[in-house]
Each structure stands twice: as structure tokens, then as C-alpha cells.
Design a protein that fits this description.
With 252 residues, the protein is an alpha/beta fold. It contains nine helices and nine strands.
Length: 252
Amino acid sequence: MSNPIIDPKNLVYEKSKVLSDNTMHYCPGCSHGTAHRIIAEVIEEMDRQKETVGVAPVGCAVFIYNYLNVDFAEAAHGRAPALATAIKRLNPEKLVFTYQGDGDLAAIGTAETIHACNRGENIAIIFINNGIYGMTGGQMAPTTLEGMVSSTCPNGRDVAIHGHPLKITEMLALLEGTCYVTRQSVHTAASVRKTKRAVRKAFENSLQGKGTSIVEIVSTCNSGWKMTPHQANLWMEENMFPYYPLGDLKDK
């Protein structure tokens, strides 16, 4: 039996054509799938599918190349901003963005992130912050909260031993080369709409040559946090948001 023809006037939602038909493998409740959908919808609405290059790093974020039908380059762990810099400088007309987790962006890639932003490279950085290394076993990340349990700090992060959680987004907002720095989430419908507007603005800034834009998305890792998706969302609201408050940090 053939599928019925849907009257466009009755169409409420349609999967973005920028999303592939591959079934997403992420854990139930993971924020990556929603972030992917937002990016795909923005690229489609901007009509930039053939003129977009994404840079995927190492970690759970790497799999974005499997779900978005745009050109991708894969970078070594933490080096996505450096690779994106080269791609954008060689192809200034392209929309170039990185998609990175907190362990990638704020740990092994700290230098690449800071210097790309300080130079004001015309790229957009999408930063997924779930406070943990999700793919490799739930280890403590630079963004792990004080007292937060991980596989490498089973008694909770101790600032006397491990230092303070790194607010790298606030650091990046201080650099002259950044034009737009914002922190959002995807845990409610309203937050998804705000994040989509932020991603659109970051992409437009990149094309207009305004400098580097960073969109941090505070996220859950319910498998790494050892919680149900519902519990993880509540824990994020009660613990992550007070330390990583949502909203724009810089809009130049």
C-alpha cells in the first residue's frame, strides 16, 4: 500500500533533508540527537547544505558525520578548531563549524580552542557540555562539577585535588576574536527553540565574517551519570544550570 499524499497545509513536521536516514545509536535521553536535528534544520533553512563543512572530533560527537548529509572532515582529538581554521581560510565562502564535547574542546583541545577564538576565525563552534567523558567510560572531565561522581573520581570531584570545574565558555567570551558566545540547552521544547535561534545566529556570523561564535549546549549523559533520562534532566536543572547558567555571554 502506497503512502498517502499529505496536503502541505496539514503538514506539522517533516524530518530535515539534511539528516540522513541512519538510525541514531545514541543512548536513550542523550542530547546529541536533538542537537543534530537543530543543526540540520538550520542548514536546510539557510539553504547551505552544499556549502557546509563540518569538523567532527573524537568522542560521542564524532558520529555526527553519520547523521548529517553535509561534507565532514574528522580531526584528531581536540584539534577541530585548527582544522576548521584551515578549511575556512581556504574556502571563505563555506559555512564551517565544529561539533565538540567538553573533554575534546576543554581538555586536550584547550589550546586550539583558545587560539582559534583569539584569532577570530570565522567559524562556529558547537560545544556539547555534559560534564563527563561519555564515550570512553564516564571519566572526570574539565567541566565535571565539584562533588560530581565519575569513574575516575568515585567519591566526587575534590577541588583540592582536581581543581575547579572549567568555565571555558566564560573564558572565550573575554577574547577579542569572539563575536557571539551563548550557553543554551535542549531539555525542553522552549529551550530547543532558543538553541536553534542561537545556532542560526552563529552560522550567520560565520558567513558574515564577524569572528568566532560559540554555542555551548549544556547536556545530559544519563548513561555516564548512571541515571534515567528523566532523572538526568532534573539533575542537570538542579546542578548544572546553577554553575553553567543559560543565556548569552557575549553578542558583539
